Amino acid sequence: MHDTPVKQDYRSLRRQTGLNQQQFWSRVFVTQSGGSRYENERSVPAPVAELVRLHHQLGIDTSKITPANAELLRSLLSGDIDSAMLEATAQRCRLVMAALGNGASELLTLSGHITRVLGTHTEARP
Q1: Backbone φ and ψ of 21, nearest 5°
Q2: Bridge partners, residue 44, by sequence
Q3: Which of 92, 12, 105, 14 is nearest to 22 (CA)?
Q4: Which one-letter DSSP state was computed for residue 5?
Q5: Could you tell me which residue ranges the RsaL-like HTH domain spans (predicted)?
């Protein structure tokens, strides 16, 4: 990424999001007054333009990128991890978790029945 200023209609983009200047620009670490200048044809530095693109055009909340998940993100972006395969695996995991959740609930119910049956039988014994 270069520091070459980027031309774009930021006012139009902001209005499409339904945000006021303070809301829109603060999400990319720019003051309201700085954002106002950018909306009035002042050059936007490339790093700021990239943050706007990531956050407002692609819906990526850059504040959630941490050292813990950065390696995974780099692997996805480089193609080392197949995103379609990762999504399919995540879906399978959700299905397994749902099945386990249902199974755990059924086991708890069965456990209650067994406890009642055993309790009845032990009470009947002398």
Answers
A1: -60, -45
A2: 6
A3: 14
A4: -
A5: 11-55
Those residues with Cβ within 8 angstroms of residue 8's Cβ, 6 or more apart along the chain or in another chain: 44, 49, 52
Domain boundaries, the chain: 10-64, 82-126
- pLDDT, position 86: 86
Per residue in 93-123, pLDDT (tens digit) is 888 888 888 787 788 888 887 877 776 555 5
Q: Cα 84 from chain centroid?
A: 16
What is the residue-wise DSSP string for 16-82? Answer: HHT--HHHHHHTTT--HHHHHHHHTTPPBPHHHHHHHIIIIIS---GGG--HHHHHHHHHHHHTSS-
d(CA 109, CA 88): 32
User: What pTM did the predictor assign?
Assistant: 0.62
